[in-house]
Amino acid sequence: KLTSLALQPAITPELVHGRVHLKCSYSRPSAKPPLQYLVVWSRLSTPGKKEQIQRDTTPQSFSYVEMNGRNLGLGDTVFCTVTAFSRDASEQQSLPEESKGFYAGIKFLPETLQIAEDGKEHVLTILSTVPIACPGQDDPCKITLQLSTEDLGKNSQLPGPPNIALSACQVDLLRAPCAESSCAAAAVTVTAVTDFAQDGNHVSRIRAEPVGRRDLLWRAYTPKDVKVTVRDLPTGNCYSFTDPHIITFDGCTSRAFEVHVRQWDCGGHRSATACNCGVAAR
Predict the structure, then answer these.
(1) Structural domain boundaries in the chain
(2) Quick check: do 10-103 and 106-231 share a fold?
(3) Does the domain made of 106-231 have the CATH classification 2.120.10.30?
(4) Which residues are in the VWDE-like Ig-like domain (predicted)?
């Protein structure tokens, strides 16, 4: 048998005749007679289990598989396994070598967010690991994603009001040369909503959904949600009561703000007591 040849297969995305393909490339050692290569494509069907989708026998140092949205679609993790064998003696085979898994689809960086109710903006990068095809002459080479948020409640138990805010409701992924696992990218900022309530930590999720695409590859695809944990922070209280007494957040704060209070006589004839009936703050 042939020993391990260090073929080092690797998967990269490409557009071939306007359609999305994955290319498995591997090094071709010099050998006489020349070698043939068996390339087996597979995808992760369930955790820990691979499903074969294509087999190629080729003298070339590469093999292609098309992402057609049927046997291979967005959201799949794809592998290629390469075995070399002698053209004259097919029983002389090298040890099979498998590529790293290639995730084809939309990725979020970071994949999860831990933020606090402190008003800070956190950047969420959205990228496509596959190139954006141009569906037609009049259609732009981009993918539009509709973004939405959903609060899963305290400790993911009950739904509630929004706990996060996004800087945009839609983003466009414009086609760009593929580099470093990104063929198109956009960014939004995520901020925790300050609700002035001691209500514990909340979990929300961000969903992205492709809109306006007619091709099967993108139309049937929904990227995985992003989980956002919002950490509750202590909230100060200020008070105004009776005739009037105003207590600031920490009891002594001096800053540029105004508080106007309106009182009315609520004690009647027996006692002179004032109650607040209106307040305005700036």
Answers:
(1) 10-103, 106-231, 241-281
(2) yes
(3) no
(4) 2-104
pLDDT along the chain (282 residues), means of 10: 78 92 90 85 90 94 92 94 82 88 95 92 96 75 91 62 90 91 94 84 92 81 93 83 78 77 84 85 85
Per CATH, which fold does 10-103 belong to?
Immunoglobulin-like (2.60.40)
DSSP codes joined into one string, the chain? ---------EEEEEEETTEEEEEEE------SSPEEEEEEEEEEEETTEEEEEEEEEESSSEEEEE--SSSS-TT-EEEEEEEEEESS-TT-BPPPEEPPPEE-SEEEESSEEEEESS---EEEEEEESSPPP--STTS-SEEEEEEEEEEEEETTSS--S--EEES-SEEEEE----BTTBSEEEEEEEEE----S----EEEEEEEEEES--SHHHHT--PPPEEEEEEP------EEETTTEEE-SSSS---S--EEEEEEE-STTT---EEEEEEEE-
